[in-house]
Amino acid sequence: MTENNKNDTQLTRLLNIMQQLRDPKTGCPWDQKQTFASIVPHTIEETYEVADAIFSGNMADIKDELGDLLFQIVFYAQLAKEQGDFEFEDIAQAISDKLVRRHPHVFQATELKTDDELNLQWEKIKLQEREVAEKPNDKSALANIPIGMTPLLRAQKIQRQCSKVGFDWTEIPPVVDKIHEEIEEVLAEVNASEPNQQAVEEEIGDLLFAVVNLARHTSVNAETALIKANRKFEKRFRQVEQVIEDQGLSMESADMQQMEAAWQLIKSR
Q: Which of 220, 240, 221 is nearest to 232 (CA)?
């Protein structure tokens, strides 16, 4: 059996398993009652689990989590098939056609040399696709940014689109100055004689948006940076818990000075 035949066999097996899980009579009760909307949270969760596995560097975990993510796509394909809308083959064909269409420099004789030329070609082809699909002609630079993106990714996408039309700083210092400005505005609201919680929330939102802008200007993906920061903090905190326990204490009984000392010990390692 060739490698392609082996892959086709396993994909066919997966599609058949999904169909069996959805069988109205003999399928799984949980799978039977799912809809497009009900499995969206699971899809998002599986995406993050793939990212977590990649950051951990465990290839076995990456393989398993990618399988879970693939299952989500197969699930949507089965739901659509039952409704008579499309099937898995249609999904595969659509993305294959799109990749070929958007990469004429690879699949045709077109030659492009710079990233700017590639980006310009990409945006031009996407515009042509929207015209063919007769989608609303929203001419804003912010058109077609998915609402369902995570806030950090969407903020970075918004800023990147604004930058393409020149609405952007060209140097780092003003970006940093904006962060300091937003910090001062947050503190002004927090320290007001009668703090307004809605105003505090708004100013913190502006601060987060400004920090995302700094990430973009330093070629850092804000979402990835925060994921890694979360992992680093969790690792250190668990080590702090162990240090406190080794001292015969618990986190509840230790005071802030003892916990800070443990934290600095961990950082020094």
A: 240
